[in-house]
Structures are given as C-alpha cells and as structure tokens.
Write a structure and sequence with these properties.
It is a single chain. This protein folds into 2 domains: 53 residues; 92 residues, no CATH class. By secondary structure, it is of the alpha/beta class. 49% of the residues lie in helices and 15% in strands. It has a 5-stranded mixed β-sheet.
Length: 167
C-alpha cells in the first residue's frame, strides 16, 4: 500500500540522483583519480630523477676513466694479454684464417675455455679454422716443442703466444 502514496518532500525516494548526474559524478571521480595518479607518478619521477641519473653518471665516469685496451679486452684470464690480441689484430690481414692451439701447459695458464670464442668476435672479419694450413696461430700454454715452426710475433709471457707459421 505504500506504493500508492505519492512521494513527499521528506521521503528518501524523492532525493534520488537522476542517472545523468550519476554518470557525471562517476566520470569526474575517474578523471580526478587519473589526474592524482599521474601527478603522484610525476612527483615520484622528479624526486628520484637525481638518483637515477647518478647511477648512469657513475657508470659513465668509470668507463671514461679507463683506456681503449681495458674497454676492448676482457680480463686477461679470459683471452690473454691485450697486447698480444692487439698485435694479432694489427699483424693479420683481414682475409686471413687462424687457428687456436692448446699446448700441454694450457691447464696451468688459467685461461678460460671461452678464449677462442672471444677471438672469433674480436678478430672479425678474420676467420678461425681447425685446418693445419692456417698460417696464423694463437697458442695457449705452448712450449718450445709445440711452437716448432712458429715464428713468434707477440708473447707477453702469460701463456698466450701469437705467431705465423714459417714457410
């Protein structure tokens, strides 16, 4: 029977918000939330920008303080002396083939197994081969007997020798 009575001014049903106004309020709330989130993210970015740039700045300073050889060559334990590698890069023609030999003292040198793979990339466009016909040779841990006909072009005494096979 209550449905038969018309709504009065004090009745809650008469105060309901029309659907159009509800949609506007929801849209306003969504926009305000987006603006607050973007503002908070921008503020956090500005506050942390100095720390972020400081990380890159210290890395740049560290890289700027070292020379070409330190940047171009890994630690000596990976692929030997940077001087030997540079000598090889300068001596060998770009179309040359070279081979990598491991001597009896290889285990004593402490070189990484990956040294020959580093040479692949560092000495491009030269190519690594297993052929005995290659005239250019890198020898890890080689003694005089292993070197045989090799004319040593660079040796830092750390177990890596670079040379050319005598004709």
């Amino acid at each position: 029977m209550a449905a038969d009575h018309p709504a009065t001014e004090g009745d809650l049903r008469s105060r309901s918000v029309p659907p159009l106004e509800t949609a506007r309020l929801v849209g306003f709330a969504v926009r305000a939330g987006v603006i607050l989130c973007v503002g908070a993210a921008a503020l956090a970015g500005v506050i942390k920008l100095d720390d972020t740039l400081g990380v890159y700045d210290s890395a740049a300073d560290r890289n700027a303080s070292i020379g070409y050889r330190e940047r171009a060559h890994p630690q000596p334990v990976v692929a030997g002396s940077g001087k030997v590698l540079e000598d090889a890069r300068l001596w060998m023609p770009e179309d040359a083939a070279y081979r990598v030999v491991r001597g009896r003292r290889y285990a004593e040198t402490g070189y990484s197994y990956w040294a020959q793979y580093f040479l692949n990339g560092f000495l491009l466009p030269r190519r690594q081969t297993t052929s005995e016909e290659a005239r250019w040779v890198f020898c890890f841990g080689c003694g005089a007997a292993t070197l045989g006909r090799l004319r040593v072009l660079s040796d830092e005494g750390d177990g890596l020798v670079f040379g050319k096979v005598r004709s």
